[in-house]
UniProtKB/TrEMBL annotation, chains A, B:
<comment type="subunit">
    <text>Homodimer.</text>
</comment>
<feature type="site" description="Important for catalysis">
    <location>
        <position position="141"/>
    </location>
</feature>
<keyword id="KW-0520">NAD</keyword>
<dbReference type="GO" id="GO:0009098">
    <property type="term" value="P:L-leucine biosynthetic process"/>
</dbReference>
<dbReference type="GO" id="GO:0000287">
    <property type="term" value="F:magnesium ion binding"/>
</dbReference>
<keyword id="KW-0028">Amino-acid biosynthesis</keyword>
<keyword id="KW-0432">Leucine biosynthesis</keyword>
<feature type="binding site">
    <location>
        <position position="96"/>
    </location>
    <ligand>
        <name>substrate</name>
    </ligand>
</feature>
<dbReference type="Pfam" id="PF00180">
    <property type="entry name" value="Iso_dh"/>
</dbReference>
<dbReference type="GO" id="GO:0051287">
    <property type="term" value="F:NAD binding"/>
</dbReference>
<keyword id="KW-0479">Metal-binding</keyword>
<comment type="function">
    <text>Catalyzes the oxidation of 3-carboxy-2-hydroxy-4-methylpentanoate (3-isopropylmalate) to 3-carboxy-4-methyl-2-oxopentanoate. The product decarboxylates to 4-methyl-2 oxopentanoate.</text>
</comment>
<feature type="domain" description="Isopropylmalate dehydrogenase-like">
    <location>
        <begin position="3"/>
        <end position="350"/>
    </location>
</feature>
<keyword id="KW-0560">Oxidoreductase</keyword>
<keyword id="KW-0100">Branched-chain amino acid biosynthesis</keyword>
<feature type="binding site">
    <location>
        <position position="246"/>
    </location>
    <ligand>
        <name>Mg(2+)</name>
    </ligand>
</feature>
<comment type="similarity">
    <text>Belongs to the isocitrate and isopropylmalate dehydrogenases family. LeuB type 1 subfamily.</text>
</comment>
Amino acid sequence: MYKIAVLPGDGIGPEIVPEAVKVLEVVGRRTGIEFQFTEALVGGVAIDARGQALPPETLDLCRQSDAVLLGAVGGPKWDALPPEERPETAALLPLRKELGLYANLRPAYLFEPLAEASPLKREIVAGTDLIIVRELTGGLYFGPKKREKTDTGEVAYDTMLYSTAEIERIARLAFEIARSRRCHLTSVDKANVLTSSRLWRDTVESLKGEFPEVTLEHMYVDNCAMQLVRRPAQFDVIVTENTFGDILSDQASVLTGSIGMLPSASIGGQVALYEPVHGSAPDIAGQQKANPLATILSAAMMLKYSFKMDGAAAAVEAAVGRVLAQGYRTADIYVPGTSLVGTAEMGALVRREL
Amino acid sequence: MYKIAVLPGDGIGPEIVPEAVKVLEVVGRRTGIEFQFTEALVGGVAIDARGQALPPETLDLCRQSDAVLLGAVGGPKWDALPPEERPETAALLPLRKELGLYANLRPAYLFEPLAEASPLKREIVAGTDLIIVRELTGGLYFGPKKREKTDTGEVAYDTMLYSTAEIERIARLAFEIARSRRCHLTSVDKANVLTSSRLWRDTVESLKGEFPEVTLEHMYVDNCAMQLVRRPAQFDVIVTENTFGDILSDQASVLTGSIGMLPSASIGGQVALYEPVHGSAPDIAGQQKANPLATILSAAMMLKYSFKMDGAAAAVEAAVGRVLAQGYRTADIYVPGTSLVGTAEMGALVRREL
Ligand SMILES: CC(C)[C@H](C(=O)O)[C@@H](O)C(=O)O
Ligand SMILES: CC(C)[C@H](C(=O)O)[C@@H](O)C(=O)O
C-alpha cells in the first residue's frame, strides 16, 4: 500500500488532479497495488482558508506519505501580494526545501502527433526526447541574500553558492539517469565567468570515472539556450544549477508543442513530489478546458521514480500516445482536423486505453 | 573625423571585419565624413604575440578612439587554457569593464527573406523585431566570488549584486530606446525568488513616471525564455541583468535565422564597442565562407549610436535587406533556390546597394 498526498491547489488544479488520481486507481486495480489518497490544501486556497500557502498540516501529510501529487498554485486573486508571498513562491520553495527535494526532473518529449503544435519546424523538433535535471535546493535561489540602504540608494544581492557535496549528489543522479537512457550527459554551466560554475564543472568531471558508459559534455548556459532551439534532439540528459535549470526547463517546455503536456518530478528526499510544469491557468479554470495530460504523465513519473513500477509508467505513457494518435486534443493542442475534448473526457480516454 | 579602433581577433574575424570597414569607407565617402581606422591585436592572436588576450596598447588605442569594431576571439588553439584565461573571457570581460560599457544592445530582427532559415515556423517568427538591453558590468558576472576548501570538500560562490544607481542607468537607457521604437519595455527579473531582482523591479518601476509614453511590463526570466520561443513578435525592448541577458540574448539570436546576421553594441562609456554576436567559427576560418552581415550591421549600429548618423545606419540596413531579397546568401543562411556567395562577395554586394 502506498500513501499519496494529493494537493490540487488553485485554478485548474482541482480539475486536472482528479484525472491523474483516477489513472492511478486504474493502475492500482490492474497491478493489485493499493494507493491511498489524502487531500490537503496548498497555495492560494490555503492562504484563504488557513492564512498560509503551505500550512503545517499539509507539510505533515506530505512527510507521512510515500509520494505527493500537486496540481498548480497561484492566480490573480493573490497577485496583489508581494512576489515572495504569492502562492507559487510561498508554497513551492519551502515544500522543496523541507522535503529535501534537491533534484527537479523535467522531460521534454515530442509526441509525434503534436509536432504540428510546436513553434519549431517539424524537422527541427523531430526526435526531441530530453530530460533536464535541475538542482533544486541550492544555488542562487537559496544562497545568502540581502537588501540594504546605502548613502546613495540601496544595494541588494543573491548568492550562487555550492558545495562539492551538493554538486556531487545531483551530478551522480544525472549520470544514473543518463545511464538508464541514451548515455549522454550535458552539464551546463558558465565556467568561463563564474567561480561556482568552475567548482560545478570540476566536480561533475570528477565523477566521470564512475560512469564509463556515459559520454559527458560540458556546455555554457548561453550556448545551451541556443542549442535547445536550434537542435533540441541533440540532448539526452542535461544537468544544471537551480536558476539555469529554471530558465532552460521553461524554454524546453514550449518546444514540444504545449506546456500542457509536460510532467515533472522533484526527488532526492524521503518523499518525492510530482506536478505538471504548467501553472494554474486561472483564465480557463472551472471550464473543463484544461489539459490533464501533464498531470497524468506526472503520475506516470511517480510510478517510475517513487514506486519503481516502470512497466506501469510506460503503459500510462503509451496510453497517452495512443489517445493523441487517435486525434483527440484539448484546446491547448488543438489543430483543425483533430477532435476537441474537455478535461474529464481526455482523462477517460487515457483510462480506456490503459 | 572619427577614429575607429579595429580589432579583427581570431578565426573568421580577419575575414569579416574588413568587409564592415569597407562599408564604413563607402558611407564616409557618401557623407563626407572621414573615418580613420587603426588595427590592434586582441584575443588568441594577442596571447600568441604578446602573452595577453588584451594587451595594454590595445586598450590604450580603444580609449583614444571614438568607437571600437571587434571581430571575434577564441578558438581550439587556446581551449586547453582554463576557461577564465581563454581569449573570450580574458579579452571581452576586462574590455567591457575598463571601457565602462554597462549596456549591451542586441537586436533580433527578422529579415523577411530569411524566415526559411529560422528554426521557428514562419507564422511564429513573422514580425520579430526586438532588442535586448543587457546590463554588462555588474550582476552575477562581477559581484564578489570565491572558491575555498572546507573540511568535506570545497565551496564556491558568485554574487548577483546591484545598486540602485547601476539599475537606474541601464533602465533609463532602455526606456529611452523603447521611446525611440514601439514604446514597449519588458523588464525581466526573478523577483519572486531573488532579492536583487526585487530591487531591480522597484528601481525600474520608479522611473516609469519619467517615460509616460512607454508601456512597462515586468516578466519573470523563465517565462521570458518561453515567450521568446512561443511568440517573439510580442517584444519590443527587453532590459535585464547581465547573466539573464547573456542567456536570453543568445536564445533570441537563433530565432531569426542565423546568428551570422546579428550585430551588437556595447555602450555607456566614453567609447563604444561594436561586434557581431557570433563567435570566431574556427571550423570555417580562412575559407571565405563566413557571413559578414552581422559585422556590417554592427558597423551600422556604430553609425547610429556613436556618430548619430541614423540615416546612414538605416541605409546600410536597407542595403543588407535588398541583397537578401535579391536571393544572395552565405552558407549559414543558404537554402536551395538562393545564390550562394562568399564573404568578400557578400560585402561587395552590400556596398553596391548602398
Ligand atoms: C514559482 C517559482 C518559484 C518556481 C521556480 O522558479 O522554481 C517555478 O518557476 C518553477 O520552475 O517551478
Ligand atoms: C565570452 C563570454 C564571457 C561572453 C559573456 O558571457 O558575456 C559571451 O558569451 C557574450 O555574451 O558576449
